[in-house]
Design a protein that fits this description.
Layout (H helix, E strand, L loop, with lengths): L2 E5 L8 H16 L3 E7 L22 H17 L10 H11 L4 E5 L2 H6 L6 E4 L26 E4 L11 H11 L6 E2 L2 H10 L5 E2 L9 H7 L9 E6 L4 H14 L2 E6 L11 E3 L5 H10 L2 E4 L2 H9 L4 E3 L4 H13 L21 H24 L2
Parallel strand pairs: 1-2, 1-4, 2-3, 4-5, 6-7, 8-9, 8-11, 9-10, 11-12
Length: 381
């Protein structure tokens, strides 16, 4: 039995999509009887994380005047910033996330990147998983997510890894080329990522579906934990407190005679009107249940869009950041659902409803192609 080690964004408390994609990739491979585990590399923000002096992005070369100006601006910001109230996760939310994340089989914990490189885990196959692991702006040093810690001549595969930007900054090209050239099989989540990598190295790059699509939609519906509320509702999920989108959704909910239920990955810094139900105690499977049982769904996230499609829930998606645009549009194009995307001015191009039977047919076809790529990559010599 081949032993596989996955490195991806894991163990999150708050990021629904990251937790679900990690579980989905591990769960699918586990169901195929592979001896599979997720490498438990901690990231900045975890209480046990130890920062490395060696493994971190070098600072950009800046003049002393620019450094001084940046320092002064930062000091001014710290002095006059408004205090954030209630910007923490509830104990129930932490419990629900930890309970879900514990379903996965992990390696031993690596508190720092140094520990990983000094004593790397041993596998037959090393696999970079999905999410924005190759995004140079991800917020943590991501060299390990290119499997550079793996022993020399190890078999290396990427599955649905995401660069998540349309163009790679020039100063990353050389190092990314070096890291990516060592892979045996490469696949990404978006067509933009395929173009970027194929421009860097002379290797074919496949575009595959996000790991969450490896699990049947019927299985997600079974795993979903239903919400406690009984009345009909519109579910709104934003990554951060997207005030314009929530304002649009509130008007839409009133037009439809629905209660608006809101959650987000990062806790908000403001209170909401009495006609808005804000939930901050749910974990990943409760989140899936909220989407499954909603009368309709509005989101600004990639994984929100993915689950709206899989669960056949009428939905709209709003691209609030240009950095999310490529991956969301790429996903909608696969299913011919571009009309589900609102304009920057919240103009609607069609109904929230879509052809569910046609969509599920495309989903099944695309997920089978993605499974075929993954299994062939693992089993090839």
């Amino acid at each position: 039995m081949k032993k596989i080690g996955i490195i991806t964004v894991q163990g999150t408390i708050g990021n629904f999509g990251a937790s679900l994609q990690c579980f989905a990739l591990w769960s699918y491979l586990d169901s195929k009887s592979f001896d599979c585990e997720v490498i438990d590399l901690l990231r900045a923000g975890h209480p046990n994380y130890i920062e490395s002096d060696k493994y971190k992005w070098p600072l950009e070369k800046r003049s002393s005047i620019r450094r001084l100006l940046s320092f002064v601006k930062w000091k001014i910001f710290l002095r006059y910033r408004k205090p954030v109230q209630g910007n923490t996760y509830t104990s129930e939310r932490i419990y629900n996330f930890n309970k879900f994340n514990s379903k996965i089989n992990y390696s031993k914990e690596y508190k720092s990147i140094d520990q990983l490189y000094n004593n790397p885990p041993r596998y037959d196959i090393y696999l970079t998983g999905s999410d924005q692991v190759w995004n140079p702006n991800i917020g943590f040093y991501n060299e390990p997510y290119f499997l550079t810690f793996a022993p020399k001549n190890s078999k290396k595969i990427s599955y649905a890894s995401s660069i998540a930007i349309s163009t790679l900054p020039d100063n990353y090209g050389k190092i990314y080329k070096k890291w990516l050239s060592d892979y045996d099989e490469l696949s990404v989540r978006e067509t933009e990522g395929k173009t970027i990598i194929e421009d860097l190295i002379e290797k074919d790059v496949s575009v595959v579906m996000d790991p969450t699509f490896l699990i049947e939609s019927t299985k997600w519906k079974e795993l979903a934990i239903p919400p406690k509320r009984k009345s009909k509702y519109m579910f709104v999920y934003t990554v951060v407190d997207n005030e314009p989108l929530i304002g649009y959704a509130s008007k839409k909910a009133k037009e439809m005679g629905l209660v608006m239920v809101v959650t987000m990955s990062i806790p908000p810094t403001r209170t909401y009107s009495e006609d808005t139900v804000f939930v901050d105690n749910i974990g990943p499977l409760e989140w899936v249940g909220m989407i499954r049982d909603a009368s309709c769904f509005i989101t600004d996230s990639f994984h929100g869009t993915a689950f709206g499609i899989m669960l056949s829930t009428p939905f709209y998606v709003y691209i609030s950041l240009a950095s999310r645009g490529g991956r969301i549009r790429s996903l909608l194009d696969i299913f011919s659902l571009s009309k589900q995307c609102l304009s920057p001015e919240f103009e609607e191009f069609g109904s929230m409803e879509f052809d569910y039977e046609k969509t599920i047919g495309i989903l099944n076809e695309q997920s089978e192609l993605s499974k075929k790529f993954l299994l062939n990559a693992i089993q090839s010599k």
